[in-house]
């Protein structure tokens, strides 16, 4: 760092100019007093603009080991004097930013002036450097005449240097791209040498098995089979297919039958620039086709994994150099980012624990473990996983306090428990260490949004998109923000962009369908929701589609969707609750009662694990009141309101409970609160629980932008 500071004579920022050699600070040409030690601190910060300079680095550079002073007091005093000299503020810094407990960063743009440039500038102005005697007038005149040839030479040298720099930069960039890391892969349908049905079936099975094994690996991300099927038999370059599928590489292969043997060739081809990264060739006996498919797919997966892990380790700036630890952590990250993979968080947890076993001081692995445990806690409400998450995040911070991952881990837990201000501060801390971290921008944006700071949320979501234009999450969250603020055309655009980034992800399609419902485009909405179900026929998918069919009073199709959902997840109380709801408004009270009873049993089972589960408390209150057990509902509703006092969904269902209890005024009061926090007017207007309010003037004002059904069904 000292060398960087000494190689530059003058440093400028704003109206300030720092002469490193002379130890002077000038403001608009006038000298500003600053003592020696604070000046050294300032010079060290200026030598590393935009970078964190830790307290330890400052101590080692400026306070020698044999200096018997209170370092903390000395550094704090020096920073105060620098800020006083520059007119800066610790609370609203313009120049020097404090990174709590770690150090400082100079955040204002800096212009460095090399010594030769300083001489030229002073000579051109007819001035001299401090400490030099002014030359006699004749000498000055001679210098002016000789200045032009020197300038011509300087220009030629400068242009030559720029051209050389450009050539070298382009070569370095080409080399960098040539060895770029592969984060996502698409396995194209394997081709066959003949059109025989057996060979074709084997090739299709080979493709599916390879996709499955790569997906189970967890990293890199693997395009879904539905996304790659259209490319079967199409003669296109890897670069065109890769761009269309939004992946970094593609796997292509051929299958050829030769008597009793099958020959298989597979290639891993990088998309940009197009380059073959790995090739595998196999010749196997065809006696057991299924076992052969699995065996070869495992071999190919192992070959790809080994190649990519080696490349990743060679280029990694992570804190581990243990190949096994890195590979396990990358698998864990892949599982965390997978869309709706069965047991993905169990697999992620196991992978991160493997990484920690290989490298017990691997901070990012502890952070990953913390986030996996937190996901499991949110899914199961089992307090053991909450404790696991908290401990892992703390361990991560212990081993990597100057990395972004530990702070993201802690911030995620704080945001998940409603501590939005603390979460925003922690996410901001992560961004100080990694300003382009997409997860930190997304997390902070979500915390801003949940604390009703939409402008800041929009900025963070937009920054997340700018940091990683291929990450679908930024677009989806920005779309959701626009949807909640009734900016529907912008929401549609962002959901479309999100869907384009991840064609195999049904979440943007569901959200897009919800926007169409808000716009009153119901046919378009149902078509979009059906596409989402076809793409990913999951429990959540059927619940979403069934709910909107219910709202459109298509009761029998809604019942069918909810029944399918219950078969997929027979232990989820919400599935039985939704099925009971559909039966109720379809005038089928007996199955409605049976399913409400089942939903109550499962919700209470959840509460035996975690009494503080807000969703289970809330829906238990709803199920009880729908069965006429009105007094029993109150304690659960009160607890839900206490646990989640600012959520629109809580207000919506509180309105249902109060209306069912016969308290119309309180029901409308809760609907006003739901509307105030941007809960969907379309959902309020279409919910069959509120049919009896449809002619109420206040209800009409709340649902003004939603087309409330003209006719109310009979409600038991």
CATH superfamily of the domain at 184-315: TolB, N-terminal domain
Low-confidence stretches: 1-7, 115-179, 313-317, 706-716
Using DSSP, what is the number of strands? Answer: 14
> How many DSSP H or I helices?
32
Separation of termini? Answer: 77 Å
| CATH architecture call of the domain at 184-315 | 3-Layer(aba) Sandwich
Indicate the CATH class of the domain at 184-315: Alpha Beta
SS-based class = alpha+beta
Largest sheet: 6 strands, mixed
Mean pLDDT: 79
Helix content: 55-70%
Percent range for β-strand residues: 5-15%
CATH topology of the domain at 184-315: Rossmann fold
Radius of gyration over C-alpha positions, nearest whole angstrom: 32 Å
Q: How would the global form be characterised?
A: globular
